[in-house]
Design goal:
403 residues; mainly alpha; 2 domains; two-stranded antiparallel ribbon; binds zinc ion
Length: 403
């Protein structure tokens, strides 16, 4: 319950309940489970969607913990009653409104001029100048628009997912700074999408996802979290162990990648760029001149290299290129030799399904079986195509490789 006569009582009368998502709650209302949860959820959304909860044009002015006069959040009853609630209400185009404008628009009395100077000074201090407007955030207006229209939960999920996917700009700029390259939005989207195409195996895709999302703990990150004394690389101690250093620029990693690069070039009989955007991020752009089947194979071969690096993440040395080559062979052979066995299993499936089909006579089961069979055939023939490219290239080059 809100204490009667408190500033909150005034707020409840004058403002919509949504005001409470950003207000500083007094002690007696902090334990209210509905209000506390509302604030917690709103805070999580602002982190996910990367907007400043308290300092944007749609944020409420009153009892805002980031707007303080005499070191306290404040509430002016007359301003609230006249309908001034949001930071955006105080701005016109790109500057703070004049007192005359506010007086005309909201009908403020003349003696509010001192309060006006106080808030103008506060806004100048907070944003650096009276002509710098707070950033806009339309998340709240989108939420209000959805409210009461039905199927709200799915609409909120869609809103969060949409904004979450488009909000990888921080990740993009982190990689751009590391690699010293600039990606267009389209190129970055191709890199993100390629993560899903990299392999049919879920574990391999997860490795690529973790690399792009910078999940792996580098020596520098461990040092910053006070989990390691030195920020230096654990392979060759001299250099700072950033994520890019561990995945690309470390001397041990460079030797490993260069051996792989040499072998791939020998097999392909063509050159392609030796660059971190391809070797670390799997960017398809450097392979634009390579035929698509071969480019797909190069990506799988490089993905295997990345998998081996992260497998030996904390080791003082990396596996030799022989390990990479033998694993590449295992992948190809294990996919090719059991082909007859796989076909046998399919015929066995057909027999079992037809048996049940004639017993129960359900068309639905037959339909499900045909769909399943088609899906599995697509998977096998896709894998088979990739293996054929590799095996034929391998046979062609056998004897030329000096590992
Ligand atoms: Zn190193």
């Amino acid at each position: 319950m809100l204490p009667p006569g408190s500033t909150f009582k005034v707020l409840c009368d004058a403002l919509p309940p949504l005001h409470f998502v950003t207000a500083t709650l007094p002690k007696e209302t902090q334990t209210n489970p509905i209000l506390a949860n509302m604030q917690w959820i709103w805070k999580r959304i602002s982190i996910k969607l990367k907007f400043n909860l308290h300092l944007n044009l749609s944020a409420y002015i009153w009892l805002n913990p980031k707007l303080k006069i005499d070191k306290k959040p404040f509430l002016w009853k007359e301003w609230v009653e006249k309908g001034i609630t949001l930071l955006g209400d105080l701005y016109e185009d790109v500057t703070v409104k004049s007192f005359t404008e506010l007086k005309q628009q909201y009908g403020l009395s003349q003696h509010q001029i001192w309060s006006y100077f106080q808030i103008r000074h506060l806004l100048t201090q907070t944003f650096g100048s009276a002509s710098i407007t707070p950033p806009s955030s339309d998340v709240l207006s989108k939420v209000i628009k959805v409210f009461g229209t039905g199927h709200e939960a799915s609409k909120y999920y869609r809103l969060l997912l949409k904004n979450f996917i488009s909000n990888t700009s921080g990740l993009k700029s982190a990689w751009e700074t590391d690699i010293n390259l600039t990606f267009t939005d389209e190129e970055w989207e191709n890199i993100s999408k390629n993560c899903r195409k990299m392999s049919g195996e879920l574990r391999t895709r997860l490795v690529q996802f973790k690399i792009i999302n910078r999940v792996y703990w580098s020596p520098l990150k461990l040092h910053r979290a006070k989990l390691r004394d030195s920020p230096n690389c654990w392979r060759y101690g001299g250099n700072v162990g950033t994520l890019l250093h561990m995945l690309w620029s470390c001397l041990a990693t460079q030797i490993f990648w260069f051996n792989i690069y040499d072998n791939i070039k020998l097999i392909l009989e063509s050159d392609f760029p030796f660059c971190p955007s391809l070797f670390v991020l799997g960017d398809p752009l450097p392979l634009k001149d390579v035929p698509s089947a071969q480019a797909e194979w190069v990506q799988s071969a490089l993905m295997l290299g990345r998998k081996l690096i992260v497998k030996e993440w904390k080791a003082t040395s990396l596996p030799s290129v022989r390990v990479w080559f033998s694993q590449l062979g295992i992948v190809a052979v294990s996919a090719s030799e059991p082909m007859f066995f796989i076909l046998f299993i399919y015929f066995y499936y057909i027999y079992i399904y037809l048996f049940f089909y004639f017993i129960f006579f359900t068309f639905f089961k037959l339909f499900l079986f045909v769909c399943l069979l088609l899906l599995q055939c697509v998977g096998v023939f896709r894998g088979w195509g990739c293996v054929c490219v590799w095996v034929s290239e391998k046979e062609k080059k056998d004897g030329l490789l000096h590992l």
